[in-house]
Structure formats: C-alpha cells, structure tokens
Design goal:
Layout: H1 15-19, E1 52-54, H2 57-86, H3 90-112, H4 117-121, E2 124-128, H5 137-160, H6 163-188, H7 196-201, E3 203-208
Antiparallel strand pairs: 1-3, 2-3
Length: about 210
Amino acid sequence: MTEPTGGAPTPPPSADQAGAPQPPAQPPQQTQGGWQAPPQQPQVAAGPAPGVLYADTITRVIALVIDAIILGIGLAIVNTILLVIGGWGAFVITGILYIIVNAVYFIYTWTRLRASPGQKVLNLETVNAADGATITQDQAIRRWLYLWGPAAAAQILSYSGGVVLGALGLLVALFALAYEIYLLYSVTQSPKRQGYHDVQASTVVVKRVA
C-alpha cells in the first residue's frame, strides 16, 4: 500500500538496525560571536604510588626560592669577606664560586638526600622517573645543566668584563630568563609534572603525603 502522497512505502527497519544502540547526539558547539570552546587541559596523573603525588608547580617554585635564599645567604657572607680582603675584584671570584657551590649543592643533595634542602622542607623528592629510585650522579649533572646551565653561562660572561663579553652576557641573560619561563611552562603541560630538564635527565619530582 502506498502513502497518501503517492510516494513509495517506507521499508521497515532491519533486525540489526532495530537492535543496534544509536550513538548519542553531539551537543552543538557554541560559535556565536566567533567564540569556540577552549582546548582541554592536559590530564594530570594522580601519582606513581599510594601516598606519593607528582609535585605541583607552585610547590616546586617555593622550594627553589628556599634554596636560593640558603645559597644567597652563604654567598653574601663569602662576598663580604672577599671584599674586605681583595676589594672589588672579589665579585668575579664570588660569581664563579657561586656557580661551583650551586652545582655541588644541588647535585650532592639530589644524589645523597634525594632532595635539596628546599625540597626537604616541603616533603618533595627528585627521583628516577622509571622506578622512583635515587638518581645517579650522571642524572643529577644533566638535570643541573638543563636547569641552571644558561643562567650560569650568563653569570660567567657578565663577570668576565669587557664591552663585548658584557653585551653577550646580557643577551645570554635574556635567553636564560626566557628559558626558565619555558621550564615552568613545560612543567604545567606534563601529566607527571616533568619539566624539560626532568625529561632530559629522566627524573620526576614527587611529594610524599603519607
């Protein structure tokens, strides 16, 4: 029997079509005024083990500030002594000495204590990303170079004196600042909160909560 309009009869749905679940309808995207839905933020992993979380960016920055204060106090004391002994030339010695002390400070504490003093205060640890083991000296050196290398190079150039080296030191310092901002950004974009320096050294920073 045909429809009243004269069209062909509508075929009945097949058995497969009748029993198959239909996909849910997608909600329409809001496009009025050129607005589009923001991209999804990267999913943050809860943690590698019970009672251990991947450390958030703010806590890691606070730990670095604590470490900077500790190193700064020591630098100020040494610089004062050297100024009394050697005059203004002491700034060059202090600058180089600070880089050496900074490297020893972090590399030693990461490999012996699993955390810098600033991290210890906040229950953070820098560990091997694969299994949570204490990082090796090679990992610690690579992590320090990728974390502080550009800043150390800028400091050496700025203390070397001369117009050419001074100007080059300024350029390297600007690059170092941009690089540190990138490191912070890379931490926020990683599900495990691994910065670029962590990826290069195969490390991860965790926080113990239990």
